[in-house]
Write a structure and sequence with these properties.
This protein is mainly α and 154 residues long. It is built from five helices and no strands. The mean pLDDT is 95.
């Protein structure tokens, strides 16, 4: 039964990734190519494998907390995880679908804060789960800088 819940978390995270990737792919070949690229922007091919690993780590972290005994800390952690996942989804919508670079920048700051809050909540339930989210926090921190650079240049 535990593995079924792991598959559920993986499915949820990759559902977000799937819709997000459709929006991203639709913009990369057109609008995104017209933007002035900041010098810190990695090659486009880097993003898909990095995000695939991050979504797997996110699913694993959520699963570890989900499988922990019920507690207020567990419930808070799961709630914060779902909030940050929704903010992750919203950022892709704002940046790639709506081309709203400034609004996306404000939103990604909220996303970063939500990830940090999730890590702090997860740490109370499963230190391993909190550690699994650390690369995600770092990557979104970099993405925040990148979003800001795109906004400034365009």
């Amino acid at each position: 039964m535990r593995w079924i819940s792991l598959m559920g978390w993986i499915a949820l995270c990759f559902a977000v990734a799937g819709v997000s990737s459709v929006w991203t792919a639709g913009s990369v070949e057109g609008w995104y190519r017209t933007l002035v690229r900041p010098s810190i922007a990695p090659p486009d091919w880097v993003f898909a494998p990095v995000w695939a690993v991050l979504y797997l780590l996110m699913a694993g972290a959520a699963w570890l907390v989900w499988e922990a005994p019920a507690s207020p800390a567990r419930n808070l952690g799961i709630g914060l995880f779902l909030l940050q996942l929704a903010l992750n989804f919203a950022w892709t919508f704002l940046f790639f679908r709506n081309h709203a670079l400034g609004l996306a920048l404000g939103e990604i700051v909220l996303l970063w804060l939500a990830i940090l809050a999730t890590i702090l909540a997860f740490r109370l339930v499963s230190p391993v789960a909190a550690l699994l989210l650390a690369p995600y926090l770092v990557w979104v921190g970099f993405a925040t800088l990148l979003n800001g650079a795109f906004w400034r240049l365009n």
